[in-house]
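Now for our target.
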Amino acid sequence: MPNSPVIDPESIANLRALSPDDGDVFLKEVLGIFLDDTPIRIAELHSSHAAGDAATFTRAAHSIKGSSSNVGASELRAVAEQLEHQSRVQGLTQVAPLVVELEAAFARVQVELQKIIA
């Protein structure tokens, strides 16, 4: 998705529209929760991968997929979806490169969301 924005502006507009008169308090709260929670889910990916726990790994990937979709982080959502699918279908044997890709995508998302929150 090289030409796609890191964060879909329409998703941010939709979140803003849920509470249009609060000066972005709601938007910043949602984005803050996402920024706080996603590293926890990424840590779950690492620990469950190391433990060979495919069920926990799949749940963590699913969680990242859903929350990424909510904030309009489409690349991050797509990688999380790949991880979820691969862990469900093939297990954890070849997920490590995708976890690295997911971490890189999240780093890009963090930068863009911090600009919105600031």
